[in-house]
Structures are given as C-alpha cells and as structure tokens.
Amino acid sequence: MRHRPALVTAAAALAGALALAGCSGSGSSGSGSSKAELSVSGPYMPQPVSADMAAGFLTIANKGGAEDELTAVTSDVAGQVTMHSTMGGAMQEKSSFAIPAHGQLVFKSGGNHLMFEKLKHTPKQGQTVTVKLTFAKSGPLTVEMPVKSATYNPSTGH
After folding, report:
1. Are strands 38-46 and 141-148 parallel, antiparallel or unpaired?
2. What is the pLDDT of residues 92-110, one digit of tens each?
3. Is the pLDDT of residue 9 over 50?
4. Which end of the chain is more exposed for a tag (fewer CB within 10 A), N or C?
5. Would you say 135 and 69 are in contact if contact means Cβ atoms under 8 Å apart?
C-alpha cells in the first residue's frame, strides 16, 4: 500500500505541471485556450503555366488564445517553397508570417502567397500536392493541396 500515495503524488505533480504549462502562453487574457489552435481551409494550387514554378493558396485559422507564426513550408513536389507578401503590387519574400490569436492568415491570389520553386515535375489539374507547414510554437500540419485549373478562382468556383 506504500506505492499508492507516491502514485497519487506523482499524478498530482504531473497535473500541476501540465496546468502551469498551459498557462504560459504570452498575451493570454485568461479566457479560452492560451495556445494556438491552428487549422487549414481552402488549399489549392492553380495548374502551373511554367515548368519550374507554381503558386499555392490557403487559409490558416487560429481559434486559440495565443498567436503563432508560420516559419516554413515544404513540399516533395518542389526544391523549395517560399512565402511572399504583396503590397501595392510589389512582391516581397518573407521568412515568416504571424497568425494572430482568434484570427487568420490568408494566402490568396493578388495577396500573400506560396511559391513552389524548382518543381521536380509539373502538377496537373486533378492531382494533389502534399504540403508541410511548420510553425514557431505548434506542431507541423500536413495539407493535401488539390491542383485546380490555371484560371481557378475560389470566389466563383472556376
């Protein structure tokens, strides 16, 4: 019977440590989750018009109470994937993008976007490209990105 109190003490210590870890999110207001809760919606790649480059678009939603940051994107279809912002028509490569607490990061045509460079093969409409998203705080997310027509527009479905 001597082992039971030690087990209870260990369980209580573990529960306390987990509770403290959950409270360490910066900028937490004390309500809701104090960590990022990320999900991806609407991923797609227009069929590339060049043999060595393609664009990718998606939305990352954060329902959690702490911000996170997209720090890297990789795909087995490309030698490298870079992230770009577009401001006033000028494209600029970025090393990371913030994902605000209770907010979202949108990659869309004419705005922030992913560039798949040094394509190993040209993705065709109807295929799917696997993309891995890496974040500063959260675990990585793997996304299946369908390849759409070169003129696909998500707001019209064409």
Report:
1. parallel
2. 999 999 999 999 999 999 8
3. no
4. N
5. yes
Cβ partners under 8 Å of residue 40, min gap 6: 58, 59, 60, 61, 133, 141, 143
Sign (positive or negative) of CA dihedral 139, 36, 77, 90: negative
pTM of structure? 0.77
Residue 106's CB is within 10 A of a number of other CB atoms, namely 16
What six digits make up the tokens of 118? 């040094």
Distances 41 to 4, 57, 61, 74, 122 between C-alpha atoms, Å: 47, 10, 8, 18, 23
Phi (first) and psi of residue 4, to 5 degrees: -60, -45
Please return the burial class of 124, using the count of CB atoms within 10 Å of its CB with bins 0-12, 13-18 and 19+.
exposed
Residues 6+ apart with CB under 8 A from 112: 83, 84, 85, 86, 97, 105, 106
